[in-house]
Structures are given as structure tokens and as C-alpha cells.
Amino acid sequence: MKDFEREPVIQALIDARKERKMTQHQLADAAGISRRALVAIEGGGDCNVSTLRRLLRALDLELTSTPATYNPPTLEDMMAENEQRYQQAASRKKS
Fold first, then answer.
1. Which of 16, 24, 43, 73 could make an S-S bridge to 77, C-beta 3.0–4.6 Å?
2. Distance CA 40, CA 44 (A)
3. CB within 8 A of 33, min separation 6: which ones?
4. Which helix (H) or strand (E) holds 18?
5. Where exactly are the structural domains of the chain?
6. Domain 8-58 top-level CATH class
7. 18: left (phi over 0), alpha (psi -120 to 50) or beta
8. What is the pLDDT of residues 30-50, one digit of tens each?
């Protein structure tokens, strides 16, 4: 399986479960969902808000929101990325 970056809220949920030394089965039972659903959520699957709230409550956590910080790439960043991709494609063609 390819590595991927989990959503921060899901990673926080996983970390909290592990810190509390809870198994997936224990958390699923406490939240009133199936273990299969929890495995899917922790694996990157979609989760509706009510299920997320149940999981967070079972872990004694609270969901809060903060303004996002977004730093769009500069033109120089985009040009450098394009050049890097061009060089990689060119080196693959030579191989």
C-alpha cells in the first residue's frame, strides 16, 4: 500500500486512541459503530460528522476550528517545479 498523508483530524483520532491504549474494537464499541467502519475511517475513508462526533466523544476529545493558513505558491515555485518535472521526464526517456 502506498503511503499517504491522513487528514489531521483522523490522525489526531488515531493518536488519541493509541495514547489511551484502546484497540479499534474498544473504540468502535464505545462510539457505537462497527470496527469495520472505524478501520475504514482510520484508513482514509470518508466519515460523516455525526460519526466523527461519536468517536471524539468516546475519546473525550472536542473538535474545534481555526482559520486556515494558506500560502499559495509563487511563480518562481511553480517554474522550479515544472523544470524539475521536465528534467525527470527527460532523464526517464534517456534510460
1. 73
2. 6
3. 51, 54, 55
4. helix 8-19
5. 8-58
6. mainly alpha
7. alpha
8. 999 999 999 999 999 999 999
